Amino acid sequence: MIENIRLAFQGIWSHKMRSFLTMLGIIIGIASIIAIVSTIQGTNNALRDQLVGSGNNTVNVNLSQGGESYQIYDSSSIPTGIPVISEETRQKILALENVEKVTSYTTRFVTDGVYYKDKSLSEFNIYGIDMDYFDTLSYSIRTGREFLQSDYDDFRRVIIVDQTASDNLFQGANPLGRTVEINSQPFTVVGVVYKTSTYEPNIKDLDDYYTNDDGSNGIFFMPKTTWPIVFQYDEPENVVVKATSTEEMTKAGQRTANILNDTITNKNSTITYSAEDLLGIVKKQQELANASNLQLIWIAGISLLVGGIGVMNIMLVSVTERTNEIGLKKAIGARKGAILWQFLTEAAVLTSLGGVLGVGAGIAMSQLIHRFTGILVGINWPAALIAVLFSMVIGIVFGLLPSVQASNLDPIEALRRE
Amino acid sequence: MVLKLDHIDKDYITPKLIVPVLHDVSLHVEEGEYVAIMGPSGSGKSTLMNIIGCLDRPTKGTYELNGENVLNKNDRDMASIRLNNLGFVFQNFQLLSRQSALDNVALPLVYAGVRKRERIRRAKAALTRVGLQDRMSFTPAQLSGGQKQRVAIARAMVNNPRLLLADEPTGALDSRSSKALMELFEELNNEGVTIVMITHAPEIASYAKRVCNIFDGVLTERTDSNRTRIEAAGGKGL
Q1: What is the pLDDT of residues A169-185, one digit of tens each?
Q2: Strand B60-65 relative to strand B3-13: parallel, antiparallel, unpaired?
Q3: Across the interface, do B79 and A328 touch by the CB < 8 Å criterion?
Q4: Residue A37: its pLDDT value, please?
Q5: 3-state SS assignment for residue A19
Q6: pTM, 2 dp
Q7: CA–CA separation, A32 vs A25, rounded Å?
């Protein structure tokens, strides 16, 4: 076998030009496939990073009604039968193997307003959060402090804002220690937070813009124990879980939603918990992108077929040229199988070499595509390995006919030919 | 007995007609013999050679090699017999042009499944035996005709066959090289190698200890009386 491979390389080397031209079909086919796969990989990576990865594997499990997320507005009455999330439920969620962290919060989209001196702000989000919220959603303190246990215990009217809210309300002045009015209650600003992992949505058209623009003038956070002072008691909560890994996001979200839905006492409630499935959305987008690219792979596959036929052709020529050699080998005692293997190995080595060169050319091609068009590319090593193995198979398949022909040569006839 | 051919007929059958090539050929060769089969072209000597060499099968008759009937073997076993019992020397050398003398000689050992180190050792010994110890890494293109035929003989001998089959071994050589080659054959025969040689040239045949004539597919043993006749006709000119 090793002897055959050595002989095959010797044969290829002694006909450099011919071997290269024979391999060219394989090289071009494999290179195009690798380039296409690299762009697919790049697009998939980008989609995933933008939609999923940047959220640090957090999954929103929100109340929803009829497929739309359920929002409580100023005037809404709270839905019945949806209990506040108990410590027991929280522990149950935390015990899930694919959940790392969990936090629950109440939220409203406030249209009425928050007031500071003569400034007022409407249309903003306000959250009543627990102590795990900032940690789970990767918020960090820019100035001031986080909520303390005593803030919760004493129902303190303290508030933390995000940078947008701070800019809108205080116009660049230091917000710490200022008093604002929300729903006729005075709140003291104790901190400003920012998100450590920035989520940059992939905006390609107006639809994307509306999807990602929440129309909010800022976010205000207060301790969840303080919430009923301003709004209502027993408001239903939403949950955010942090999955142990990106792959676990869908499962973590669904299981959390199931646990939460079990707690809903009103079995006829049209409002239920459902987990948003970012990973699922990404997969759908990836599938869409892949489907169109797969057709390109088929086209590249045709060039592999043409390359394979080229290999068969040149192997047939080679058998004719080497009739004498084959005759001699058979005369001195080489079995049919030995001749068959020699030619099959030669074809397989030839196309595998073409495959390796094709992978190299494909990687170079995808880098060029990246440089000139900016399309993201990623090298998919399993695909590269499959490509090389596949070209080896092409060699074996298309080398079969010439090899069988060689092994069936009659040694007497073969030796007589000059 | 190394070779035992009895009542061999060989016809070439084409769709239109049957061409008889060998008729009732019997040939017995003992261990250590040196036999020449002499005949003009078209006499059927190449066909006989192919049958002896297990490359072809007779239409009728029996053939035993080392006491073993070879005619009921399949192609695969025939290949094994060629590999292990026979050494071939051809008129036009039939060396692989891209490979060194050493690799050419070692080739049968590859098919015999001999390990590389052992292959090289035995190929070197065989090349040394034919006097080419300083030409081992040369390719055929770098060797003279006589040297090429020596490489071919080394290749034929490397597997220690029971029988060395030579088909017009001097056909492509000048008279000086031919003479040297025939001396090598005599030496090998003196060492106990059984040789069957086919030739059309009486002067080459005369090196053999026993000569058979073949004409129109009929083999006749040459007695001393007709040997003199052939020699008188200008046979031994070397």
Answers
A1: 888 888 899 999 888 88
A2: antiparallel
A3: no
A4: 84
A5: helix
A6: 0.68
A7: 11
Assess whether A90 and A22 both reside in one domain: no
Do residues A387 and A311 share a domain? yes
Pairing of strands B34-38, B210-215: parallel
Q: At what angle do helices A336-373 and A2-14 cross, to 10 degrees?
A: 60
Rounded Cα distance, A321 and A353, in Å:
22
B176-185 — which CB contacts under 8 Å span 24+ positions? B176/B146, B177/B144, B177/B145, B177/B146, B177/B149, B178/B204, B178/B238, B179/B238, B180/B146, B181/B146, B181/B149, B181/B150, B181/B153, B182/B207, B184/B130, B184/B131, B184/B150, B184/B153, B185/B34
Which chain B residues are closer than 8 Å to A418 by Cβ? 92
Dist. CA B192–CA A329, nearest whole Å: 26
Chain A residues whose CB is inside 8 A of the B75 CB are: 336
Q: pLDDT at position A272, please? A: 86
Chain B environment of A328 (Cβ under 8 Å): 90, 94, 96
Helices of type H across B59-218: 75-85, 101-111, 116-129, 145-157, 175-190, 202-205
The DSSP call for residue A51 is H
A46 and A107 belong to one structural domain? no
- Domains of chain B (ranges, CATH numbers): 3-232 (3.40.50.300)
Q: Which helix (H) or strand (E) holds B220?
A: strand B218-221
Interface confidence (ipTM) of the complex: 0.88
- Count CB-CB contacts under 10 A for residue A252: 28
Same-domain status, A142 and A170: yes
The two most distant CA atoms of chain A are separated, in Å, by 110
Chain B nearest-CA residue for A322: B96
Local mean pLDDT, 10-residue blocks, chain B (238 residues): 92 87 92 93 89 92 92 90 92 89 93 92 94 92 92 93 91 89 92 92 91 92 60 47
- A345 contacts in chain B (CB < 8 Å): none
What is the b/e burial string over B23-48, where b = at least 16 CB atoms within 10 angstroms of the residue's CB? bebebebeeebbbbbbbeeebbbbbb
Give the mutation candidate from A19, A321, A324, A332 for the B interface (greatest B CB count, under 10 A): A332
| Contact between chains at A336 and B79 (C-beta distance less than 8 A) | yes
Residues 6+ apart with CB under 8 A from B31: B1, B2, B162, B192, B194
Listed in sequence order, the residues at least 6 apart from A383 whose beta carbon sits closer than 8 Å to its beta carbon are A33, A34, A37, A41
Residue A59 maps to a domain: no
**Residue A223 structure tokens:** 């301790």
